Fold this protein.
Amino acid sequence: MSDLNDYRKKIDEIDEKLIGLLGERMKLVQGIGRLKIKNNLPIESGSRENEIMARFQNDQYARELKDIYQMIFLTSKRLQKPDYYLVGKSLVYSVSPLIYQMFGLDGYGLLETEVFPLIKDSEFRGISITNPFKNEAFLKCDETTETAKKTAAVNTIMKKNGRMIGENTDYFGFSWLLDHHHLNVSQKKALIIGNGATSRTVEQVLKDRNCGEIVKLVRNVRNPDEIPLTDYQKQANADFLINATPYGTFPNDDVRPLFPLSEFPNLQAVIDVIYNPRVSPLLNEARQNKLKAISGLGMLVAQAAFSLKFWTGKDAVSQIEAVHSAMKRRLANIVLIGMPYSGKSTIGKQLSGLLNKPFFDGDAELEKIGFDLPTVLKTQTVEAFRQKEAKVMSELAKKQGIVLATGGGIVLNPEVMKRLGNNGLIVFVNTPLSLLKERVDGTRPLSKTVGELEDLFIQRIMLYHKYADLVVNENDLPKITEKINEHLDHQWS
């Protein structure tokens, strides 16, 4: 029996390597597919397949290997030639494939390119287009819908009988966003930041909803309805503000808002069409001024549903709410804050399994690079540790869909806490002081004694409550999970 177990152990080791190598192969295959689409090259290459087959024709398992590789070739062709894909300049952080998968469309690909590709003769059923190609896509289509004509922009193309038909589903996406948040723009004043394709789309939706006045804030004035960004104070009576530019999009999200919002007393809502980070610089400014702050994730999900209907006829519109909710849950970071000994790491590991999110421990990440607090204090100061901690936490804050247990003192840094909140739900693990005192074991450099722990508690407790989106007790994990999902469903835009 031990021999059988030994064989199985060796097979498991080989399978683990194979899985990793096959995954790498599939990524490379998709890269080849993108190059072929961009250069209008044929997907299939019989000579290439024969070349690979020839490598094992004299192997004792040649027949078996041939069967395996035929399946690999079939999979490679499918990956190289998606029926549907997204075209854009920078797509490495795109969540569109995940959204379409949730709507039931598998095999949605990405085509990252510096120039709009020669797709006229390519084989595809549907293409999505993101900035900066929406204007060019409009001009390249053989036919466009009335919505696309009104906005002079196309973000969705369908191939039908060899002709490219263009639609602007961003129009429907932004309309859904307004309805979802019960925003009535009729006879109101709206400011739009930007004058590109997305700005025109937002403007058209507002016009069709009888918006009273629409003003565009831009860097370079080109049309009568545009004013310079520097003159924003002259529009202080606006009811709605919409950012229709990529400003503040990850990874260039560490920027200041374009202007303060404290001088806009009438604002009912602030909308940013970007969705990563969820809380953009503009939406951070809105939150600080207690304004309704709405991200572009709902718009992205809604336009995808309309694109799918345009391509396939499938009514995915009825699924928008469910997919939007699922995406909020999927992309949200769960950031645990709390006192030393509060159980953040233990809870974090358990939540990681329950929520199907990877787990990161802030202290463990610092320990990996030899910068954990006990090590640092041997030769450096607490301040040196805090600076390094801030840098590591700021990088982790940029991730999406993780569970993160932070060090107890992270709340002392308001800038890092803001970054953690951009993509994260801040959860305060509120373990009673009496229980924390029982756990003191002398291993924590800043709370070796009960007295030191009490001092830290007094210094920090108000900060934990200040930054918390949610306050939980460590003992009821199912309840914590339920509260997290409920908050993401109903409180996150």
DSSP finds 19 helices and 17 strands in the chain. The chain has a mean pLDDT of 90. Residues 2-38 form the longest helix (37 residues). The CA atoms of residues 325 and 489 lie 6 Å apart.
